[in-house]
Input
Amino acid sequence: MSNGYRPEDFHSPHAPSWCKGCAFYSVLSALTTMLSSAHIDPQKVNIISGIGCSSRMPFYMSTPGIHTLHGRAIPVAIGARLANPEIPVLVIGGDGDLFSIGAGHFIHAARNNFNMTVLCLDNQMFAMTRNQTSPTSPENHKGSLTPQGHFAMPLNPLQLAVTSGATFVARTYAGSIQHMKEIFLKAFSHEGFSFVHVLAPCLTFGNNKRVADIFSRVYDVNSSMACDPAVTTHDSDPTESFVDYGRDSKVAIPVGVFLIRQSAPYESNSAIKNRKTVSVHEYIDRLRITE
Amino acid sequence: MPENPKTLRIIISGEAGHGILTSADILLHSAAIAGYYSSVFKSIPASIRSGSSEALITISEKTITSPVSSFDILFSLCEKYQTGMTSIPVTVKPKQLLFVQSGSEENRDLSEKTGVFPVPFETLASEIAASFPALKSMIALGILSQIAGLPLEYLEKAVERHFSDEKKRHRENNINALHTGAEWSKEHLDGIEIFQTSSQPLKTGNRIILEGNQAISLGALAAGCRYYASYPITPSTAIGEYLTELLPESGGAVYQAEDEIAALGSVIGASFTGVKAMTATSGPGLSLMQEFIGYASMAEIPVVIVDVQRAGPSTGMPTKHSQDDLLAAAFGGHGEAPRIVIAPVNTEDCFHTTIKAFELSEKYRCPVIILGDSAQGMIKETIDNFNPGQHHPEDGRTSRHSSGVLKVTGLEHDKEFFPSENPRIRTEQVIERFAKLDNIEAENVSLTDWDLEKDNIYEADFALIAWGGTVPAAREAVDLLRKAGYRAAAMYPRLLFPLCRESVTHIARFSGNLFVPESNFTGQYSSLIRMNTGIDPISLSLFSGEPFTPEEIVKRIVKRISFQKQETTRDCKIPLNRPGL
Output
């Protein structure tokens, strides 16, 4: 690639502090590969995250980054977008960050169709605080604050994104850097609010078998990607296919792009355009007493 | 200028929907055309169409900015004479004129008193146009034009200007109502003239009408603010409304966020990526913003937050005056997060202090909270020769953008903003964040107004420190006290936190008692003084939802001093009423 940036140009010198074998290493690789193939200048993209294991991502990338507060990456991203509509924004958060404490912000950013890409690195729990139930934890998930199991339907991020008005909704999985890279690139290239649900189960508070099981059940709705014949696939109704992947270990997990809708992003009307030097005298003149 | 300038105090009281605030604006404007200074203090209910709505209008030959404690003329447009401002005595005093709705059972007793005139507002209004209660207040202005000698043509001009965007018919109805009121007055009030404006405009000054919230918006624009985000909350919403008018045409952006957390979050996002940014809110919003205030302090991102205070806690009294957010602004949130808290001292100063807030936030790289209040934010007044000053051409770039910092975090971090929990780095970083503010006292020189007894502070009987919306009343109180023979020293700081120890210590050391009038229960600024200097001021607190009047401050100080000096009290004659007409 001539005159381009290599994936390593997007890596920072800092080694990630994630557990050995964590799915987020693959996500980081997919992200840097994607940005390199998108021909983005590493200084011309803002990576904005919340708090949690996955939200450490900005420290391991060479791009400008804002490690915000728990659940608050999206509002900060909105300010960055409106102030600099020419600089793309990637928001990275976990399932707890985006859908527990930050759920309100997610809905409104999707509804307003801000031109940003939001990646939810879903490990189905609060992992940094050592396994508590998150909104996407499977039913009966036992967390340290719900030792008897949490008896509630998990939240479905894809359905939430669709009903909130996101104009690009996709899912990918940490088991394939190539798949992630392709989906990320499509999301990143989309004009408007793009949401990608990334299956990235926790190894430390899960186990190898469970991670392997989840990855073996995925099938891409956009292609005839090989799928374990032992699991059943869904019909073609995209809403049906936004299945909760943790609920039934026999059910196939659809990945791929579920929805793309063309709609003018919020910034097209309301972002900072040509910053002008203005004189307040002009405005003060409007307040003058006229006889 | 005469010793006791001619001053006329008018209350227009009615239900929301009676056009009270509109008529106040029109009166303000026409008084300005006549060459008078005037101010409007609005007291509005928290709901759109219930409860009482009042405008207190002062017209004078000199600038008047503080709220009044009495009135000369009152128009009560509803069935029952009522006033929401409990500090205004309901009893009718000599020389006062009251115009109340006639034929009302509720007003019967009142109507028999001298100085009370029943007016058929309802009938007169419906003769002009049906179902148009807002005309009642125009009729009131018509009556006023005759007894106050305010030429009807000035009122007409102001109506034309105010309704310039409305239908012709609408303007005509309002002008008809003015004439109807004037006619009624000629028929029923022959010979009564309580005030006489000059036939020629007093002064053709370079005059504007400005409201505090508007001044803050203009100040932000002048400071180079190009991004504003907020969530609707009384009484700060007007700032957003003004900036929504001003910013887009200056190439800036405004955003109505889903809550106050998101509003400040997006302001931080805009500021970090290089654009000067501001949000405005009131108490409940300040509570929600605390986590991001801590973040901006930790990540050293300049942001300006306006808190137009209202009476708290919780939802409190959304439209009522208070100064009870000072400690929340100074210390709110967990951990130790250095920030700066400043407050403008009058309407005009809202403009300059906002510019200063942006300068300080850039210079010290921390959140700056501007404490406004509803008295200040919602007072509208005529201002002479308003000088916006010379500001460098600004396109809204923050200085941070060129500083090369690419990452920020709310985690403790090293100088490169990489997370670190190393005890040495932690210690250095905490010290560095606080040490930035070590020299803040130097800023205070330009941020404090002194009003010393001649130049001899050593001889003052007492000193007074007031801040924010209490300052205009305090200034007048000091004048009244001096006229009564007291030797007073006063200090009006804009920079509230970090507290300027030297200035406070200076004024306290050479004066007797130190009085701090403020609109909260616990005496919050007094607490700051105590914890920072060991000086124990006498807190004069008012927490009724009304702002201090000069008379109230005088009364409390005199009471306190009299108590201390029993023997001198007998000789002490304080004019508790404002200089007469």
In short: Residues 225-239 of chain A have pLDDT under 50 and may be disordered.
